[in-house]
């Protein structure tokens, strides 16, 4: 038992590093012969750790240099093991190194607080803290790298990498030398400062990751809006062409009916069939007219009842592409939800848009089935890969925020409700007149 304990005292640092690196690289793409490469890398780390202990020195600078070489070996091992971009590798290296150092410092502080116990008690407490810290960092930081985040900014990553080396290498060696001279209280003070500094850098690393994710989502949303604008133009041409052809067909049916002595009931039935395509809703807004006509065709085909009462003229202050994207995404989400419902009586979508007292209110409701979860006040996509889905609701919020509005999405029983409130911009000079 003593031999095992001494082994972990001498080489526990390597096990901690391997654990932390595993958390941050679990979803990375692995190179060929990965397991052989991994065994070789771990063997190199153990050999270096043995050489480090075999060449003792009282100089903190010499000790710091040895740790710098060790960290360089770890970084090289990541490039050797994984086929990822340099930025992703650097992110994982910094995050894992900080996680190991944070767990080490917290474990040391707790052992000081509970006072020296037996070797077994100290080892159990320390291992428990290391596992807890790694689990916490995995939940709040490491697992958010699942699937990869391309385009991580290089400058802040390099800056945080430099801060990590200062804290984990330079400060650590200086504190061990000068902190021990001041006794246990001074060492505990230095360790507390070291732990807090490490935690701050981890928080900054998390902030970089979140900022990059928001930037990527914003770019994806803008690209989606661009594609929807192109779709609107194509739909406009198609629907105009259909309306022209339907108008001509109605005239031709009446003429052919008289000449060929077709029953009036049959002629009227043909006209009603054509009216499905020719009966376009006139809302007072071209973008909404195109959108409602397009979605009505689809709903008719899928057996969905689409009811709408829309004052499109109240939306003249909005760009046509924004109108098309905003309400198009809302209707598409509703259609996707009701298509999963078997009961025809519940395959219903309702939409109202109206203006009153300088505000536009829009409401879309539909039945839905199955579980529905929310995150950041938006419904979470049910698709397996959320990297490329869920942008419909995000683009709705993006457009509403663009016009200084407010949006709410909530489920009440088996009905999903989307509510939008948009302020109508005041005309130039209106505030002066009302003053």
Automatic annotation (TrEMBL):
<keyword id="KW-0812">Transmembrane</keyword>
<protein>
    <submittedName>
        <fullName>ATP-binding protein</fullName>
    </submittedName>
</protein>
<feature type="transmembrane region" description="Helical">
    <location>
        <begin position="154"/>
        <end position="175"/>
    </location>
</feature>
<keyword id="KW-1133">Transmembrane helix</keyword>
<dbReference type="InterPro" id="IPR032834">
    <property type="entry name" value="NatK-like_C"/>
</dbReference>
<feature type="transmembrane region" description="Helical">
    <location>
        <begin position="187"/>
        <end position="209"/>
    </location>
</feature>
<dbReference type="Pfam" id="PF14501">
    <property type="entry name" value="HATPase_c_5"/>
</dbReference>
<keyword id="KW-0472">Membrane</keyword>
<feature type="transmembrane region" description="Helical">
    <location>
        <begin position="64"/>
        <end position="82"/>
    </location>
</feature>
<feature type="transmembrane region" description="Helical">
    <location>
        <begin position="89"/>
        <end position="114"/>
    </location>
</feature>
<dbReference type="GO" id="GO:0005524">
    <property type="term" value="F:ATP binding"/>
</dbReference>
<keyword id="KW-0067">ATP-binding</keyword>
<feature type="transmembrane region" description="Helical">
    <location>
        <begin position="6"/>
        <end position="27"/>
    </location>
</feature>
<feature type="transmembrane region" description="Helical">
    <location>
        <begin position="34"/>
        <end position="52"/>
    </location>
</feature>
<dbReference type="InterPro" id="IPR036890">
    <property type="entry name" value="HATPase_C_sf"/>
</dbReference>
<feature type="transmembrane region" description="Helical">
    <location>
        <begin position="120"/>
        <end position="142"/>
    </location>
</feature>
<feature type="domain" description="Sensor histidine kinase NatK-like C-terminal">
    <location>
        <begin position="318"/>
        <end position="423"/>
    </location>
</feature>
<keyword id="KW-0547">Nucleotide-binding</keyword>
